[in-house]
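Researcher: Structure for this, please.
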Amino acid sequence: MRYRKLGSSDLSVSEISLGSWLTYGVGVDRDNAAACVRRALELGVNLIDTANVYGRGAAESFLGEALAGVPRQSYVLATKLMGDMGGGDKGLSRAQVFKQIDASLTRLKVDYVDLYQCHRYDPETPLEETMEALSEVVRQGKARYLGFSEWSPQNIRDAFALPGVERFVSSQPQYSLLWRRPEKEVIPLCAEKGVSQIVWSPLAQGVLSGKYLPGDAPAAGTRAASDSMGAPIKGWMRPETLEAVQKLKPLAAEAGCTLAQFALAWVLREPNVASAIVGASRPQQVDDNCAASGLVIDPALFARAEAIVAGVPAR
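Model: Predicted structure, token format:
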């Protein structure tokens, strides 16, 4: 496993990180989920990403149990707030920041998280209020650093323009061969501000593994066939998308790797990407994905891949 510096922080994070959206505490049985976490740690994954809203606390509670006994300094723990937790608890107000960090720490069974991220921007709360509250969380020692997910370039600029507050070190956008939107403005802006990307859905919900064939029903046990995990993938399951992905397989073969590894290596070719978050329901998937770290692939193969998917509509 290779590691990269996370923005302007002193954190070093694994190029492949383990996520828990749709999976842990919700879509994957506890034994398999725990096996995935153990295998990830064995392979050198040190960044574990979750959020309070994943299963409304279920993912955090699961990770609190799964990581019990693991030396706290050996892994980087990231969680988020913003989503609807029920009972009117949502958003990035001062009251919510303080309430949600304490609830997350209790579920995760830790005294602090390494990275506390705004899951989305909250247009109903003044940015100054949010940033001042988050800064207090850092100064209280409950979080080491701050990040955001899917903020607009203007949101990012506005946050960095505020005086006397802690600075963001990470951005969590969707980014893959099939979804390149962050390249236009977010990545250049973040590189300028000392912010690294921790990207989600680098395999387009598994579509870029090549396991879904055009015209065939998703195999039992896959994410696309799952009632609890399948909704977000539907936009990627168009025949033209699946056909284009199949055309990528010979390129991966030429590179001497699986298509999933090829797609992850493509994301990691970008210097501003510190880590690619993968979801896994079986330890074997963790093995396959972690093997993408450190892969050296001919840029000409990446260029050919980009040309193949260039005409595919974005969901």
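Researcher: Any notable elements?
Model: The longest helix spans residues 94-108. The chain is about 35% helix and 15% strand.
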